[in-house]
Amino acid sequence: MSLAEKHSIIIKQEAARLGFESCGIAVAQRLDEDARKLESWLSKGFHGKMQYMENHFDLRVDPRKLVPGAKSVVTLLMNYFPSEEQQRDAPKIAKYSWGIDYHYVIREKLNELLDFIRANIGEVDGRGFVDSAPVLERSWAVRTGLGWVGKNGNLLTKKNGSFFFIATLITDLELQPDAPFTTDHCGSCTRCLDACPTGAIVSPSLVDGSKCISYLTIELKDALIPDEFHSKMDGWMFGCDVCQDVCPWNRFAKPNHEPAFTPVPEILNLSTSQWQEMTDESFRRIFKNSPLKRSKWQGIQRNLQAIKIV
């Protein structure tokens, strides 16, 4: 067994101990095909007002520019599917945001993994990323053999669907790469395209982000959500899970075992009127460690207004 193989095995074992569902490895290199796709997506204006998507293009498509001397990209998946359900009269909130902000949780685990590598393999350079830097996470997940990009634009796995976070560790350590995932298991299914309330999935695996309810309720910072979408919000106050909820592969989703993802009680139980009556002070206190703080109290109230006016 080569040193690269041995190192890869112990890294995957530690990743599993830290609670990651899957771990795959690829050689760090420029993603030429993905660069062309990203350029086309941006040229169509599908990023809406997310100007940051236009920044650092070279960093997005080449991990060696993010971590000089990078040799390997390690991709990790962490399950967030909950065992609980929201009350029927509660405004809908995307499942990923029910517990503590995943950035805090996963960043700590990535730091632990990097510390483990340095303690057990040697001094290496590396950086961990979780939706916080210009990294094409889904592309790397496919290249590391963890799954395929479905028609809804999400990474899908045969084992447990798509309700998981993707994290990336880029390092100058030479590791044994896994075989990339090459098979699309969506077949002729079009449930996600048919179910999208706003028609944001314009064709298989191509999403117009500017129409996505997640974009409208989280990323869009305008004072009001455009009138044309009010009748299509489908009750979603923060994010949207429709294209995942209807996906047949998510029948295999299993509840997560991460205590930090235990739902905030208010997310499960508050009615629309209770959300509307909530003060800014209460919101900041209850959701200080929640992804919902990204929209702030004002954003939540704006979103509720869009849901109400139908």
From TrEMBL:
- EC number(s) on file: 1.17.99.6
Q: Which cofactors, if any, are listed as required?
A: cob(II)alamin; [4Fe-4S] cluster
The reaction(s) annotated as catalysed by this protein in its Swiss-Prot or TrEMBL entry are: epoxyqueuosine(34) in tRNA + AH2 = queuosine(34) in tRNA + A + H2O
**Which annotated residues bind cob(II)alamin?**
R60, D131, N152, L155, I166, S214, C240, D241
PANTHER family hit by this protein: EPOXYQUEUOSINE REDUCTASE
Q: Describe its assembly.
A: Monomer.
Family indicated by similarity: Belongs to the QueG family.
Q: What is this protein called?
A: Epoxyqueuosine reductase
Source organism of this protein record: Taibaiella soli
The protein's gene is named: queG
